[in-house]
Design brief:
Elements (H helix, E strand, L loop, with lengths): L24 H20 L5 E5 L3 E3 L1 H9 L9 E13 L6 E5 L6 H8 L1 H5 L5 E17 H9 L1 H12 L10 H13 L6 E4 L7 E4 L3 E2 L5 E4 L5 H13 L5 E5 L5 E3 L4 E3 L2 E3 L7 E10 L3 H6 L3 E2 L3 H6 L14 H5 L4 H7 L1
Helix pairs in contact: 1-5, 1-7
Length: 344
């Protein structure tokens, strides 16, 4: 969608060029690209249990990702929605773009978040429709079960919504965030008919890191490179090739028995109340459980990969392609300028 026919990217291994128009830019391009990928993948990989998506500023450790996905019981895979889950509301006013408002179901934080964003007041405005709170898997990495991807790709309501979003007015600096939008359409278009299985991976299990720092454990699977220090990805690859620890994984029911979304709730007057007309969703919620603490016990504290002396001690520095005349410290701070510009 905009690349010249002789662009070198078209011939790179593993690159998929879609028909998504480049002119959409950050406004609607990510949503269109995501749906184009899901539709392509479900047709191209007929035996895949999961279809995944990751951002381009993320390091994935393939052996750990495979262990993570293989840990999901076979019977839970077809409707799986796996990732680091947060919660949002969708606010919709006819003729205008969707607005997404943050919300967390965690006690002690949910009411504070709702008050800060003025959720109850905004949802009480005439002609404004609120949906949620719905869970969404954050963009750095998520995986979706095959049957669920099929339902997304075939849903006429989702296709119509993408068309309408492309023409609705939007302030110049705003755009539709594709990971939140995906959670929203699962909730509004698919989730009342299919029993989704939420599989939540969180930072405290030491497999998922979404942080500005560079301290990790050896059982790491996913690292979101927030500062766009491109060479951190190289360091992670060599560190984990030498020192990764295979943590046994399992899943346990979340939310006192596994029910995710018996009904939508909104914070009203300092307490949680169901909004009118929001359907119940028969979803099951599970959270990742590391079945052995051996890796963490052996590590002690997280390993600071920004410490060059430690990299040298671990045998990592000798593997790094640091240019002659450049210090490892300086090399570690080089940023991916293209990613940094896209983030802004």
């Amino acid at each position: 969608g905009g690349l010249p026919v002789d662009a070198p990217e078209r011939s790179e291994p593993g690159v998929l060029c879609t028909d998504v128009p480049a002119v959409l830019g950050r406004r609607m391009g990510p949503v269109r690209s995501l749906m184009a990928w899901l539709s392509h993948a479900i047709a191209t990989f007929p035996n895949a249990h999961f279809i995944g998506k990751a951002d381009d500023d993320v390091y994935l450790h393939p052996p750990a990702i495979i262990r993570l996905l293989e840990s999901v019981p076979v019977g839970m895979r077809k409707h799986a929605y796996l990732g680091y889950h947060n919660w949002y509301h969708t606010l919709y006013e006819p003729g205008r773009q969707f607005q997404f408002t943050t919300y967390s179901p965690q006690r002690g934080y949910s009411n504070m978040a709702a008050r800060r964003t003025g959720l109850a007041k905004r949802c009480s405005v005439p002609n404004v429709t609120c949906h949620g709170p719905f869970p969404y898997a954050c963009g750095p990495f998520f995986a979706i079960g095959r049957r669920l991807v099929q339902a997304l790709a075939a849903n006429e309501g989702i296709r119509a919504e993408m068309d309408s979003l492309s023409v609705l007015p939007m302030p110049a600096k705003e755009f539709v965030v594709e990971d939140v939008w995906l959670g929203s359409v699962l909730w509004r278009h698919v989730g009342s008919r299919l029993p989704l299985t939420l599989l939540s991976v969180h930072g405290w299990d030491s497999l998922y890191y979404d942080t500005h720092g560079f301290r990790v454990h050896r059982q790491l699977a996913i690292y979101h490179n927030r500062h766009k220090f491109i060479n951190r990805l190289v360091v992670l690859a060599h560190f984990l090739e030498l020192h990764s620890c295979k943590a046994p994984l399992g899943w346990e029911a979340a939310n006192n028995g596994g029910d995710c979304c018996p009904a939508g709730v909104a914070a009203v007057g300092g307490r949680l109340s169901p909004p009118s007309g929001e359907p119940a969703h028969p979803w099951q919620a599970w959270r990742l459980k590391v079945l052995s603490t051996r890796c963490l016990q052996e590590d002690g504290t997280a390993v600071n990969l920004g410490n060059v002396s430690l990299l040298r001690e671990l045998g990592v520095e000798a593997r790094l392609p640091v240019p002659t005349g450049l210090s490892t410290e300086t090399w570690l701070k080089e940023r991916d300028s293209e990613s940094a510009v896209r983030e802004r």
